[in-house]
Design a protein that fits this description.
Layout lengths: L2 H27 L12 H12 L5 E2 L3 H7 L5 H13 L3 E5 L8 E5 L2 H14 L32 E2 L3
Parallel strand pairs: 2-4
Antiparallel strand pairs: 1-3, 2-3
Length: about 160
């Protein structure tokens, strides 16, 4: 267990919460629909559990069974959905080892994402992100680390080393 990764996960959660609060306030000001926060619930919890297992290289290899046990029984489908959201938010990446190595999933926490979230929020606060051509509801903003996700079903895993 790495204290650095656990602290990182907590700071990521705080930054995402701040960013959504800011986006909600901005949407209210402009009379737009409030943004949804896909990070709430299972994704935030799964990130915290992955961070608890991560080593000094920011990698970990918990099984779905172990993640389910550590989350108090989250179903595998819910864990897979949460992992997809974490990957889409660029908080993690993962790959699967070769079958001869038992096909273990290796998760890698992306340390740099915290700085990206902080920088993005700072730019929004300073008005550097304002665009005269505001996006319509449901569209993804380019470069937004809090972009909406649309992934359904199981997450495709890449083979490690490929």
């Amino acid at each position: 267990m790495s204290i650095a990764t656990s602290t990182w996960a907590k700071h990521v959660s705080h930054e995402i919460a701040k960013a959504y609060e800011q986006s909600a306030a901005e949407a209210t000001t402009h009379g737009e629909e409030l943004p949804g926060n896909k990070f709430l619930g299972a994704p935030a919890f799964i990130l915290s559990v992955l961070a608890d297992y991560a080593d000094e290289t920011w990698q970990c290899k918990p099984s779905l069974h172990l993640l389910s046990r550590d989350t108090g029984g989250y179903p595998h489908a819910e864990i897979i959905r949460a992992i997809g959201i974490l990957e889409e938010l660029e908080l993690i990446s993962f790959c699967t080892t070769a079958p001869e190595q038992r096909g273990i999933t290796v998760f890698h926490l992306k340390e740099s994402t915290l700085q990206n979230l902080q920088d993005h929020r700072r730019h929004k606060l300073l008005g550097l992100d304002r665009d005269q051509n505001r996006t319509h509801r449901g569209q993804k903003e380019q470069g937004d680390p809090l972009k909406a996700t649309s992934q359904e079903g199981p997450v495709e895993s890449k083979e490690c080393g490929s």
